[in-house]
Amino acid sequence: MDRLFGTDGIRGKANEYPITPEVAVRLGKAIARVFGAKGHGSARAVLGKDTRLSGYMIETALTSGLVSMGMDVLEIGPLPTPAVAHLAKSMNADCGIMITASHNPSDDNGIKIFDRDGFKLPDAMEREIEGMVLGGEIDSAHIGTALLGKAYRVDDAAGRYIEFAKASIGNHSLKGLKIVLDCANGAAYKIAPPIFRELGAEVVELGVAPDGYNINRDCGATHTEAMADLVLRTGADAGIALDGDADRVIFRDGEGSEVNGDKIIAICALAYHESERLRGGAVAVTTMTNLGFHKAMESAGIGVEVTDVGDRYVIEAMRLKGLNLGGEQSGHVIFMDYVTTGDGIITALHVLQLMRDTDKRLSELAERMEVYPQRLLNVPVSRKIPLIETQEVKTAIATAERDLGSDGRVVARYSGTENKFRVLVEAFDSDMVERHATAIAKAAERELG
């Protein structure tokens, strides 16, 4: 059977399978059935999107499928993914749906689904939806005219989320801080600047002029160079770069150096631990997390739960262990006391609050974690055969692991959302890291390309 869902929802090229109107209509029908729609008013979905031009196409098709099965749709327009998760819960909807391809280029799009509590769906529920979409016709003939769902535009959705985000730090004043805020020409372009301004920060805007095509283009969390330059030119205290759907964030400190998700989580974990707010005495991170993070947590007496790559797996571990902090190196950070998914804006607010409370520069806070040399390479592949069945790739990995010993590691996996092989090599010796990462990547090019 074909697969629709990857590690973070459904994703692909817009207007190519599976990101087509035809699939979106069927997906809407399947979602409505799974979430119990029986007729107008019986079930509701919050539907948001980012700024991609193709979002209009997918939004219309999804809505058609949902209402045809009797599900009402609350359309909130361009807003961050975490806003959809929050509003699904706060508006007592049955689910939340976000149309986005996150940090991908504008030609891509995708769909993320949340349950009524704002959490991403478990694998079993995704498989159920997937089976309906890929199976036979989803009958909606039993939904007569009087039972058809309705679509409503929620005019105050942005304001609801703005107030929620500010409240996550108790409307703490950020007066005296100057920030460069890069919204990636994405979902947060309208709402992020006023959040920080209303709390007193001086905001220099970047990436706030979306045109349907420029989301993530040379801006945002995956391209922070322009933001770093602006931080230096304006004398800002920090740069904050969101991605296209604002569920993750990468910082630049006042000197222009990058502060990634690992360092952000370390900063917040240490602060939470010292103020006795770290539930469970531990944090949850993924296999990609830097060895330096583990050393910093060990020194502070903080436990570390390690999961597969993907913020959904981090969240599952947090819920299982009763933790309130976790995330990924890529900038997904989850503050479970406030949100149910990665939230770049709320993460930024908490970091800025720490800067104000401690009267320390971001570089000072970040230096508590030493970063070990690390090389991550992405190799486009034409096939994804199990790595245990490869020859060249498996041999290159074994050679690297033998040379690195206990002072380093190799993490090799396929992307869950793209046709790519990813290899991470990490050790004390940067030359060894580069040599082995390159060797494994070249083996993957030859064997999997």
What is the strand and helix layout of this fold?
Blueprint: E1 5-6, E2 9-13, H1 21-34, E3 44-49, H2 54-68, E4 72-78, H3 81-90, E5 95-99, E6 108-115, H4 123-134, E7 151-153, H5 157-167, E8 178-182, H6 192-198, E9 202-206, H7 225-234, E10 238-242, E11 249-253, E12 258-259, H8 261-274, E13 282-286, H9 291-300, E14 303-307, H10 311-321, E15 325-327, E16 333-335, H11 344-358, H12 362-366, E17 374-380, H13 392-404, E18 408-414, E19 420-427, H14 430-448
Parallel strand pairs: 3-4, 3-5, 4-7, 8-9, 8-10, 13-14
Antiparallel strand pairs: 1-2, 2-6, 5-6, 10-11, 11-12, 15-16, 17-19, 18-19
Which term fits the overall shape? Answer: globular
How much of the sequence lies in strands comes to: 15-25%
How is the largest sheet built, in terms of strand order? 1-2-6-5-3-4-7
Number of domains: 4
Rounded radius of gyration (Å): 22 Å
In round numbers, the mean pLDDT is 95
How far is the N terminus from the C terminus?
23 Å
CATH architecture of the largest domain: 3-Layer(aba) Sandwich
Uncertain runs with pLDDT below 50, 5 residues or more? none
Q: CATH homologous superfamily of the largest domain, by name?
A: Alpha-D-Glucose-1,6-Bisphosphate, subunit A, domain 3
Question: What do we call the CATH topology of the largest domain?
Answer: Alpha-D-Glucose-1,6-Bisphosphate, Chain A, domain 3
Return the structural class: alpha/beta
Largest sheet: 7 strands, mixed
Q: What is the level 1 CATH name of the largest domain?
A: Alpha Beta
Number of DSSP E strands = 19
